[in-house]
């Protein structure tokens, strides 16, 4: 989809404009001339409605029942939301593309790995894992194991060792990936995230990791189905006949077509992650209490039943953002698809 | 049929075992000092009574032993020595927390809550007795409303696009926003106080059962309504899309051409085929409702399983969390099997494939 077709559609233009504004405000949150900091309590102005601000108080959008300025909360909440949802969506889609395309492309039977490669890569992974977490039972084993794995991999790369290459194992990629997906989807996502976030230290980075590690299953399913469809098309057969390796067929010929659905759905992934993040913050789980967030802001509405602005203002921001993201993911009306 | 369901069960059991195990190990990886400190404070009934450090240590040790936290977590452990490089791998045998926990689960014991020392199984049953009727009612209402709406839309095509737009924007909002807005508009002394704000009245012995039922329904109206509202868009759009698709097929045109009324074509011919893709959505509905119940029960302060889960997550009450994860994963597993059985019944074409 080119840029010109984006701009030919007025609704998409509005959506794009709103998202750009939100991104700009979030990025410049620290330098904006806000009268108050997001965490500060102004005890002389509790639950002040918006637009009634006298020159003295300057709470333009009102305050919550704890006296915190709503404008600052909204700006910094936007930053928190975007800082979590965009990287999490990128990471989730990345992992989803990696695993889903491997599962769809090789299936259960066609990834045949020679025994030597199995040992070599397995040894490298093991040494890597053990060294990262410093879990060596005997440190004197570290160097020999790493050296052997390197030697095995490089020997096989030169294709001189017949014996280690002839014996191959089939690697059931599809089954492994699908059971990982089944594992993660056996529990509703909100509950999974809630439960995992509750047993971790709460921080922005952990929440980001937890969200992306639970969200990759959707993109992976999409990509897997597309890759399985494209793998059987004639042009792939033609490419295969030219003698390209599996890896380059997958990367240069299958993925550009297969990833289209995931690329179009990318704004929807961001929207879903924003929904999850705000819900979690509303429940008071996942983010440390001192970090401003739209969900936490709306949770304070229950302290004061008359404070409509605590629901309306973050709610409208959320609705606008979600609708804008969905608008971007919609098929273009001019081209029909 | 039975063989199919049995093989499905055998294939899905490891998944349940996996997710519960992963969660168990994750939850035990966190240091438990804070948790123990809180548990000790809650056990000392008088907050003012100060205890000496050795007393406190003894109490902590006692508590650890009672909760089974003094044993190793898994079959083996790796201890990193403080000086660097070297670390010790140790084999613990079967007397570890993980093994003992599964033994207890097999015997039907889910442990006791860290917070109030109640057995987890009875806590879960107690809350399920509330949550199950509540979510089931919401699910049935949502399915009924979705069917009615999509049938209505086939006849009033002028309203169709408006309705779809409304549902589309409703779908964009997270559940907690919808529930909060409903709560604010309809159960607020400053706006319209049509419904009670939260909680439940304790049934008075003097009241008639009719009054009790009335009060129950009155309290549940808003929570059920918000759950229905949030599940409706997905169901309606899916059902509407498949109905529109079926109405353009050749057999629908034939049925119309032989002189059947439009209503009859929809009811007897297209609807049955259009329902097929919706079955998958419907079987996903109950787990989704449990997730929705977390938010709704917190907002309306209802004593259900969702709130138990949210409170346990906030307080890091692991036995309760583990019990709920086990329960929800098994329900999900069962619903998968029910979906397979339903497909088998509904679509004879699939019988050769499954």
UniProtKB/TrEMBL annotation, chain A:
The chain crosses the membrane at residues 82-106, 118-136, 265-286, 306-325. Residues 78-329 form the ABC transmembrane type-1 domain. Pfam families: BPD_transp_1. GO terms for biological process: transmembrane transport. InterPro entries: BP-dependent_transpt_permease, MetI-like, MetI-like_sf. Keywords: Cell membrane, Membrane, Transmembrane, Transmembrane helix, Transport. GO terms for cellular component: plasma membrane. It is found in: Cell membrane. Its main location: membrane. It is a multi-pass membrane protein. The keyword NAD does not apply. PANTHER family: D,D-DIPEPTIDE TRANSPORT SYSTEM PERMEASE PROTEIN DDPC-RELATED, OLIGOPEPTIDE TRANSPORT SYSTEM PERMEASE PROTEIN APPC. Belongs to the binding-protein-dependent transport system permease family. This is ABC transmembrane type-1 domain-containing protein. It comes from Hymenobacter crusticola.
TrEMBL record, chain B:
PROSITE patterns: ABC_TM1. InterPro entries: MetI-like, MetI-like_sf. It is a multi-pass membrane protein. The lineage of its organism: Bacteria, Pseudomonadati, Bacteroidota, Cytophagia, Cytophagales. One of its GO terms (biological process) is transmembrane transport. It comes from the Bacteria. Keywords: Cell membrane, Membrane, Transmembrane, Transmembrane helix, Transport. This is ABC transmembrane type-1 domain-containing protein. GO terms for cellular component: plasma membrane. It is found in: Cell membrane. SUPFAM superfamilies: MetI-like (SSF161098). Belongs to the binding-protein-dependent transport system permease family. Pfam families: BPD_transp_1. The chain crosses the membrane at residues 130-151, 163-187, 216-236, 274-300. Residues 128-339 form the ABC transmembrane type-1 domain.
